[in-house]
Amino acid sequence: DTAGARRATKSLLFLGLSAGAVAGAGSFACAAFGGGTFSGDSAVIEVVHRSAPVLMFAVAALVFAYPVDGAMLATKNFRVLIALSIFGLVAQLPALQLITRSFSGTRQPALPLKLLMMTMFVRLLTLSLFSLARFWADLQVKPATDGEERQSGKLESSGFILHGESCIHGRGVFTTKELSKGQLIESCPAIVMDAGAAEAMFSYRWGLKDDPSSKDFYLPLGQLPTVPREVRAAFKQTVGETIRSDELAAVLKTCGVDEASVEFLLQQAKDFSENEVVSVSGFCDSLRMSATRTLSLGKAVAQVNSVEAWNLHHDDLKQLASMLSGMCKASTVAEALQEVHSLLSLGHDLWVYAYMRKLYDRSPDLYFATIAAEPAKLLPAVYTPTVGEACQKFGKMPLYRRGCYLCISDRGHFKEVLREYAEAELEKDAKGNYLCDCIVFSDGGRILGLGDLGAWGMGIPIGKLDLYTVCAGFDPSRTIPLILDAGCSGPEGNTDRLVIRDSTLYTGMKQARVTHKSAAGTVVNTAYYGEGNVIEEFMKAATELFGERCLLQFEDFNSNDAFPLLAEYRNKYLTYNDDIQGTAAVALAGLLGSMRLRDAKCDLRATLLKQTFLFHGAGSANIGLMRLLNEEAGVPLSSIFVTNSRGLIWRSADGTEGSFRNEEQKAFAQVGEPTFDSKDLATLVEHVKPTCVVGAVGVTPNCFKKPMVEALLRFSERPVIFALSNPKTQAEITANDAYEWSQGKVIFGSGTWFAPVELNGKTFAPGQVNNVYIFPGMSFGAVCCQAASIPERLFLAAAEAVANSLGDEEMALDMVVPKRDRIQEVSLNVATAVVLEAQALGLAARNLGADWQTVQRALEAMRWTPKP
Known about the structure:
- One of its GO terms (biological process) is malate metabolic process.
- InterPro entries: Aminoacid_DH-like_N_sf (IPR046346), Malic_N_dom (IPR012301), Malic_N_dom_sf (IPR037062), Malic_NAD-bd (IPR012302), Malic_OxRdtase (IPR001891), NAD(P)-bd_dom_sf (IPR036291), SET_dom_sf (IPR046341).
- By secondary structure, this protein is an alpha/beta fold.
- Strand 19, helix 29 and strand 20 form a beta-alpha-beta unit.
């Protein structure tokens, strides 16, 4: 602890006091019982004995008058101070002779007085030895190096620790002369000061006398009340949160105060600053100041050295951060829910999203406990549909520490970037290995149905992993949300034509994506292919650092990249693509649920084989579902029809011609060009006669018109219509239109949330066919049983588990998937089914049991639960 200098000088002071006390005891004894005079060597002993405490007082006063830090003591004054300490200790020894001599005088003291004097001597000698030992421990400080950083004055740190007149941070120790006032005020979002530093600033040694910003750095604490020992950990966490906060914060570390009342300090702070001011002794070890991050930040953020500095650098972010701090004051789940309900009453969930991100930054445990308390209300706010708009405005909200950015400009150094993030954010096991169960990574190339949002797409991996925790029980401290920054398209690359890459608030690399045409004729990201490509380097680096059983989940890659990348790596690493496989599985779960709504006791797989399917849109979601239906459920290709922007996808008999755009579409193309207008959906329905229609276009909202719905009713009493595009503004049809146009006969499911619909005295509650029913349980099951890979068979098992979780109440409301407030139960069912299937296929390295109940109990015991 570099604050040991103060404790060391107090140890010296105590040595002087104890020496003086023993000297006084010896002198009193000799005067009272030994005749009261000294001669010869006894006189020398008396002189030495009386001068020792005076000398020790002088040394202690000198050290207090000239503040030094632990590093200076260790490097410059070590031998001198050790010698003085030993001298103070040895100076007490003659007292034993003096006391012994007094016992042999003419007047013997009573036995109680003898015992008292001997006890005093032994006690003082023991305490002196203890003080010397503590003094030695306090001086064990490594002197700082890194002269180049001193010369440049470029400090890449999220904060400074100030001791006396020196500054300690992750790069070394600096004197105040090497730090300008501007560096301290403008570049330092968090200051930790000891008493000497506060005193130096208060006496204007840094030229802050007339600077109003000095109030942000100093708060006279006075006498601080103490609190129970069990609260100490909470104080340390509060200090850590303040250090990582998005506001300028002064954290005063006072020596000699074991514990301090946070409530008292915050009350006092109101008189000085709106910023949080916290004080607690002995917390420096928990602050990991050496683990600063620069490589793993977004490229624009790295230029200002820290997340905190980024927020301070932009006035809008600074003000918004201050507002969110004012709103987010909860310390219990009840208080958090009260604050959330107030925001929900405003009618826009984006404010709730921003609030919840701030709450996570303050306390992950409280964040997850709050969501778990009301998942039906809060899941739509922290993930879909709100997360879509949140990503579009991600740079306009305060930035927080969570999330790793891996830029293609760092190619060849990905392992170092991941290690930096892990060192700062992850825990280690007893062997020193980083603890990471899974990484959700995206390049932001196709965020929901909104297009290319680049680094602003970080909201998706973060939200995804939040649901891993809330729904399945992943430990959030063992997960990494990651953006692979390969550039960002211009306004033409996203649906709302937003200027993202050139925004001053864009956090990533301001560069267009480098693309080329693949052999299949599709436009793909060049960096993802060929020898030494960034996907391979990332996956290799991740498994080397975190182990082969670390799950690596693809998320929101452009479809042209998503399919070939999944095909390349699905059998090399523990990985899957949720947009392809997760969406397919939950859509299949919804279709199986629809079969149960028609006949609750039907054989699900047999009934599925009798259906005819029309898929509108040939992106990753529909392609994945068609593959699952055909390859795993056994639905013949003759029962599967799919469209793209050219209408019904077809191919010639030899496959050389057709309307397909890639090999994935070609695999499901009908043989022969249609003789009707297949772009008109009503006409297409008349010819195909489907019983189930699944829309996942993403860019054509409200494309399912009334004539199409009416045509469906001519071929099925209860046709199925799924509108899977996100967000709600991109849905192919609304729930209200689907029910009204069909008079409640349509079985409806959607990718986004729709309110219940009242029609003809019946309530219809649209089931949200969202991946959240699949990916948390899928990932948890695969990680817990240490699966070697995740084949399609596991997704079929997961889909059946979701459909079989439907209850009578949900079926009465025409819901194709269970209610959202049962998500933890459903996720556990999915995880159980996945583990049993993986074990049956021989993919599980860890066997969790032979039957459903045994596996489920094992999984329940492995779930992480928040402790707010």
